[in-house]
Amino acid sequence: MNNVTKIVKKITLSDQDIEVAKDTLRESKMGTDRKTLRRVLGDLAVVKMLEKNGDQLHVSRPIEHFVYIPTKGNIAQFHKWVLAQGYTVIGLNRAKDSKVCISFEHIGCANLSAVISHTIPINRASRRAGGQYDGWGTFLEFETEDGFDNCPLVTEQQGAKQS
Predict the structure, then answer these.
(1) 117-163 pLDDT tens trace
(2) Per-residue pLDDT tens digits for 33-52
(3) How do the domains of the chain map onto residue ranges?
(4) Helix (H, G, I), strand (E, B) or coil at 81
(5) Across the beta sheet with 99-108, what order do the strands follow?
(6) Superfamily assignment of 3-159 in CATH?
């Protein structure tokens, strides 16, 4: 178990966090259905982990997303959607269980409202293509005497393991 996973496992979401997630969804007008709320709570766990470790959420950085689509799913349709949204495709790799992992990124901030403006549409598009959105990752951005610096990737998958 790496240090990031150890840190993430210490984060728990309170009732207040759940209300923050619901309010953010209402403000974004993306609906508050159960699947969407679950997605936002996973995103919130990662944002909280980043904050807890001194991240400067307002600093733009690469944010990478991961979607798994069965080889019998509509990989081409999803790939076209990703490109049409302006994302940069990093890779298409065969994964376990006859699935393909499509990884792609955008440059953006890691605050909750900015993150969900991407994760909710990605999650919905991946389901339409028969796939599953596996989450996102980014670098921890922190301030130094010389400006901003970063350290290794932190993924939403690790944040989703919260109780």
Answers:
(1) 999 999 999 999 999 999 998 888 877 666 555 555 455 544 443 33
(2) 677 888 888 898 889 888 88
(3) 3-159
(4) helix
(5) 88-95, 99-108, 61-70, 132-144, 147-155
(6) RraB-like (3.30.70.970)
